[in-house]
Write a structure and sequence with these properties.
This protein folds into 4 domains: 57 residues, Beta Barrel (OB fold (Dihydrolipoamide Acetyltransferase, E2P)); 61 residues, Nucleic acid-binding proteins (OB fold (Dihydrolipoamide Acetyltransferase, E2P), Beta Barrel); 57 residues, Nucleic acid-binding proteins (OB fold (Dihydrolipoamide Acetyltransferase, E2P), Beta Barrel), CATH 2.40.50; 67 residues, Orthogonal Bundle (Arc Repressor Mutant, subunit A). The chain has 279 residues and is α+β, with helices and mostly antiparallel strands. It contains 4 helices and 18 strands. 26% of the residues are buried. The N and C termini lie far apart (66 Å). Strands 3-2-1-4-5 form a 5-stranded antiparallel sheet, with no helix packed on it.
Length: 279
Amino acid sequence: MIKIGQYNTLEVVKVVDFGVFLDGGEDFGNILLPKSSVPEGTALGDNLEVFIYFDSEDDIIATTKQPLAQVGDFAQLKVVGISGVGAFVDWGLEKDLLVPFSEQRRRLEVGQMIMVRVYTDKASGRIVGSTKFNRFLDKTPHQYQVGQEVQVLIAEVTDLGYKAVIEGLHWGLLFKTESFGKLFVGKRLKAYIKDIRPDGKINLSLQKAGKAKVDDIADKILSELARQGGFIPLSDKSSPEEIFQVFRTSKATFKKAIGGLYKKGVLLIENGGIRLNDN
């Protein structure tokens, strides 16, 4: 069955001067792929991976262009227009994506970069965007375990820290005290489940917990020392930014890691950096 607002692999059933028609099955019939999107050498019977959406006339159409998001995705998009029904954002296709006024947490303005959830409106069948994320998240019980690695998307900045979408399904919170490096709305990154509160809310960390976190960074330090010929111009005197740029970790964790390696006699801590102990 054809999935509107997503990628589909469809067979070429007719070739015409202005493009090719693809087999959309009984529900959709033949779907046009305009000539501008047809890969060179395409022939009758070929299978093409295409994105299916609605054109400016609200007719179903195919494209080989890659949108910035598809149905079910969260993405940061730019507001490019305002109309009587809502705001339009650029999602990489000829027809901009509508964010209806009813789906805006606050009124949008042209030029804004906003986080949008792309979905199919059940009433109209149209692909639209929403900035009201709560209606899409935490709708299913989570199966996360403390310490589990997850993929997250920074969606909002709050007084407490950063609200992040976990695996596209649930809310999580990354406290400011757990944050380091350059974080911003729209950034995708790896995180870890720090704890799960009795009310089901999830707290996140950018590092593994406890000893596993320190051991992981210690291994990275040793690998980098070997790669750099036994010396790295970083120490406990270096800035948090310099340390993060190389090891993607906090200064506190870095200091614990090199302290442990020093006690084991693996490395030497010098004024200008750290060095492998040849002895």
